[in-house]
Design goal:
single chain; about 350 residues; alpha/beta; TIM Barrel; 11 helices; binds S-adenosylmethionine; binds iron/sulfur cluster
Length: about 350
């Protein structure tokens, strides 16, 4: 599927996809150790995260975001690692929210620190949050977050975000077979009628560290059937082109859920997202092996025009469609025959 490029955008990739969204990873650190993203055995006390000089400053990030906005980006999403562990994050939000062409600034977080920060984030100009919550059940939560506490603080974070007006709050639940797939109805029950939008995400083969296998993926169809059997749902229209979640509304009018079928029904044809890593690399796909270093030229005195040309050069050559290729390269045993050298999820922010 190709996407109409509006007169405002100035760059489209080889498959005709404009550059519309930018995900900015503001830190490679995290206060959780989800085994599918930053397993504790690998990211222990001695793990060396990026040293401070390698990390883009707020001013550098804002400058790049402004240049991206000049090329058609309208939505920014702040992510990580865990973005709320980045010191003084509201100051960055304030800088980004002031960029005239930017229509929406959102943030993805595990919610642990959100309770204490929701008001200052909203005050700085943040529009919305997506909160990662894989289970309400204490033991499953501990396994999936790699931490010795339950979901309470994340649930408090969700409520604080809603009170602050960071709405609608989206709640992302990554579904992993054998881990939390028996708890999907409980999750739906918890958020039904609250105004928060629960979204189930198929477990993906991002990065190289989570020993992913197709057998751990619970396909969207099965997720739909589980929820529908308990709480009847029906498809709702997508809100905008390029929206990744398939939307369903409860037939009793008590809200909606989303299912992100990145594995069983890939949406590369509508993918208008670029990613900026914490150390200033431009990455054009969640499954890319690397990215274009923008920090070095930026620090060496490149002008806005030079940087804009570099980004245009990368985007106009883009032909990424990994998830579609994965679908075509999966064997009967669930193994995938595609290159394994990939960046990690905590570097790209989802
Ligand atoms: N720390 C924040 C958080 O957890 O929301 C932001 C970064 S995290 C990498 C972004 C999202 O990616 C989270 O919702 C997380 O559950 C999701 N994620 C990480 N690894 C994943 C995988 N293998 N498959 C699907 N989603 C994944
Ligand atoms: Fe941290 Fe988010 Fe990765 Fe979990 S998914 S380890 S919370 S960055
Ligand atoms: Fe976009 Fe790459 Fe995901 Fe396809 S696989 S939707 S191109 S990020």
């Amino acid at each position: 599927m190709t996407i109409a490029v509006s007169s405002q955008s100035t760059v489209a990739d080889r498959l005709g996809r404009p550059l519309r969204d930018l995900r900015i990873s503001v830190t490679d650190r995290c206060n959780w150790r989800c085994p599918y993203c930053m397993p504790a055995e690998v990211f222990g006390e001695r793990y060396e995260f990026l040293p401070r000089p390698e990390i883009l400053t707020f001013e550098e990030t804002e400058r790049l975001a402004r240049i991206f906005a000049g090329l058609g980006v309208r939505k920014l999403r702040i992510t990580g690692g865990e973005p709320l562990v980045r010191t003084q994050l509201p100051r960055l939000i304030e800088l980004l929210a002031r960029i005239p062409a930017i229509e929406d600034v959102a943030l993805t977080t595990n919610g642990y620190l959100l309770g204490g920060m929701a008001n200052s984030l909203k005050g700085a100009g943040l529009n919305r949050v997506t909160v990662h919550l894989d289970s309400l059940e204490e033991e499953t939560f501990k396994k999936m977050s790699g931490r010795p506490y339950g979901p309470q603080k994340t649930l408090e974070g969700i409520e604080a975000a809603a009170r602050a007006g960071l709405t609608p709050v989206k709640v992302n639940c990554v579904v992993q077979r054998g881990m939390n797939d028996g708890q999907l109805v409980d999750m739906a029950r918890r958020f039904k009628g609250t105004g928060h939008v629960l979204r189930f995400i198929e477990f993906m083969d991002v990065g190289t560290r989570n020993a992913w296998n197709m057998k751990q993926v619970v396909p969207a169809k099965e997720i739909f059937e589980k929820i529908n059997a308990e709480f009847p749902i029906e498809p709702a229209d997508r809100e905008y082109r390029g929206e990744v979640a398939e939307r369903y509304r409860y037939k009793d009018g008590s809200g909606e859920i989303g299912i992100i079928a990145s594995v069983s029904n890939p949406f590369c044809g509508d993918c208008t997202r670029a990613r900026l890593t914490t150390d200033g690399r431009l990455v054009t796909c969640l499954f890319a092996a690397g990215g274009k270093d923008l920090k070095t030229p930026l620090r060496a005195g490149a002008t806005d025009g030079d940087l804009s040309d570099m980004i245009t050069g990368v985007w106009s050559k883009r032909s990424d469609r990994y998830s579609e290729q994965r679908a075509a390269n999966t064997g009967a045993d669930g193994s995938v025959k595609l290159p394994r050298r990939k960046l990690e999820m905590y570097q790209l922010g989802g």
